[in-house]
Each structure stands twice: as structure tokens, then as C-alpha cells.
Amino acid sequence: MNHAAPGPLADLKVVEICTTIAGPACARLFADFGADVIKIEPAQGDGVRQMGKHVGDISLYAATILRGKQSIALDLKSEEGLAIAKELIKGADILVENNRPGVMERLGLGYEVLSADNPGLVMVRISGYGQDGPYADRPGYGAICEAVGGVRHMTGDPDRPPARVALATTDYLTAVYAAFGAMMCIHERKRSGRGQVIDAALYETAFSQMEPYVPAFQQLGFVPKRVGPNLPTMAPNSLYPTADGEWMLIAANSDIIYERLVRLMGQPELLTDPRFATIRARGQADNMKAIDGIIGAWSSKFHSLELERMLVGQSIPAARIYSIADIYEDPHFAARHMLVDVPHPDLGPVKQAGIVPKLSRTPGAIRHTGPNIGADTERILRGLGLDEARIEELKRNGSVTTERR
């Protein structure tokens, strides 16, 4: 962890009213790069605290996705809790929320209300289907929105039902889109002095990955299908077996790399075979199957580590399929600080994924692990000018909650 210098976003104040993944991940990006992030959560905490693996009752996921943030536990359905939230947002540059459309308005936290007191406020709104349109009221998690966005139709093997990646890929990509939108709005605010709303929809994030197929359907009526480990219309780019029962991903996407591969294989005749002589020819379904079979027969003669060294030694993009255990042993992850020890008050050092991206002059830093629910409630309230008697009153009536483990 690097505490030496403030991050590039150290002048920004962010309030987060989010649950589960996309919203907290977006606000975590701001925190990683120095923003002062206050997370408002209910007394029972963000649902992300119940997700992933736990050590006892301690959420390892919360320790990382909530890192660098402060936690204040408020009852937003109480008049006093809502008033505190509004006061915090009044002094914020960015508000991040990922409730279903209409929830913030029903709470009295719509943009028109908030921007009346804070005209420069940038409000990041993350939802399944966006703030308007016929599907706006639908509940939508990332996996559901992948189905609507066409991604799930493309995922898996052609002879099986659509598969899923057991990771929140659409949530994390939406978090990046949302953070990028917020930075554009902060930049524009320097000219206009005014904030605005970012409307980030999970299904649109998923759909954005379908970019090459949008014109292909309109012009050619082409509907892409699942192709398993292959890259559609591009070969060789697939998984190939090794002698030790592992798999090697080889991506010879250009003619130059393809030539390196077939020369390494000792089969230069594959350069002149009309089925494989060009990228376009290799991308034909039957030809793709044929070249993959030839490469698979060759790759299966070598153990995975030996094969990887051979391929990389010839500047051919290739890699074994890493597990998390492989990542922990890999020197590149260590050299790039992608496995970072972060102190935890109960668990000692806890490994977390490092900061992305790397900045040369003002890098991000993990300031502390994710806080317990309401860990910063009293300090934040004192910062708003409330005295101890008033804080105790708010605790008694349930408008606020202080740290509990």
C-alpha cells in the first residue's frame, strides 16, 4: 500500500448509495485513486457483505470492494436519516446509486431535488435497463442483462445451453463505463459549472460487446452462435490439449503469427494449403475445424509448461489456463503489484487484487480495508457539526447505526 502521496482524485468527494456489485465497484475505483468516498448503507449493511467467502462472519468480498471507503449506517426511510444523507450529498461532487429507477425519487433524493442545493452534483445512476424505456422498471442483475444484451447467447459450446462466466463481468465493465462517465462530467463541469446525470445500464454494457455483429445482422442477416473456445471467423484461436491433460490457449490471429506457429510445428506446407493460406480462409467453419485438429495433434505431444515456453519463445501469443492458485505463484502478478497485502483489524494481512490502471506520476493506493457497517458513522456526524448528545439521540431512535461486527 502506498500512503506517500494523495491520489489524482483527492479533491473529489463521493457519496455512495449502492448495493451488491456494479455501484460499489464504481465507487471503489474512485476510492482507489484518492477520492473521499462515504458509503451510506442500512443498519444490516450492503448485501455484498453476504456474498462470496467468509472467515467466520467476516466478508472477504466486502473487505476489498469496500476498501478505501467510509461507512455510515443510515435509515433513509426516517426523516432524520434522510436529512443527514441530503447534507452529505450537498457537499459531494459525485453521487453513485444503483437502485431501481424511481427509488431515489420516492426517497426524495431525485436529481432535481439534490441539484437544487448542489448544482455541480454529478449523479451516477446504474440500473439494469436504464432510467427510461419500457423495461426500466424490470429488476436486472448483470447475468440477466447479459441474456438481454445478446452476450449469453454467445457464451458456451454450440451443443449445450448457453453458459455463464462465474464472475460479475458485466457489473465490473458497467462500473468502468460509469466511472468514465463521471470523469467526463467532472471535466465538463469546469466549463459550465453544472453537474449532470450518468445513466449506465447493465444491458447496454453487455450489448456494447456485440459491436461487430450489429452491422453484420443489418447488412447480412448474420446471427452469431456459440462457438465454444474458438474466436468466431478467426483461426487458429482456441484451446489445444497438452500431454499432461491441460489446455493451451493459442491465438495466431495474424498471418505473421500463423507463419511462426506452423514453422514451430515443422509443418510449413500449412502456409500454402489453400484452406489455411489466408485469415479469411482459416476463418471458414470447416477450415477452422481442420486447422484446430492439426494443431491439437501437435500440441498434445508436449507438457503445458514446455509448450508455453516454446510458443512464447517464438513470439506467439499463448498461455496456460491459470487458476487462482497459479496466479498466486506467478512472478508477473507479483512484479506488477497485482496481489497486495492489506491490513485487516481481525484477520491480519489480507490479499487483495491490485489497482488498475497504473498511473506513472499519481498512482492509486489502497488506504485501508473495507470498513465494518457504520464504522465511521459517529466521526462523519461530528464532521457535520452534530454534538455527542444529538448523535446519541439519533442512535436511540434508529436513524443512525454505529459500528457493529
TrEMBL record:
Coiled coil: none
UniProt-listed InterPro entries: CoA-transferase_III_domain (IPR050483), CoA-Trfase_fam_III (IPR003673), CoA-Trfase_III_dom3_sf (IPR044855), CoA-Trfase_III_dom_1_sf (IPR023606)
GO molecular function list: CoA-transferase activity
Record's keyword terms, sorted: Transferase
Transmembrane segments: none
Any Pfam family hit: CoA_transf_3
PANTHER family with a match to the protein in the record: SUCCINATE--HYDROXYMETHYLGLUTARATE COA-TRANSFERASE (PTHR48207)
Name under which the protein is recorded: CoA transferase
Biological source species: Achromobacter aloeverae
Lineage: Bacteria, Pseudomonadati, Pseudomonadota, Betaproteobacteria, Burkholderiales
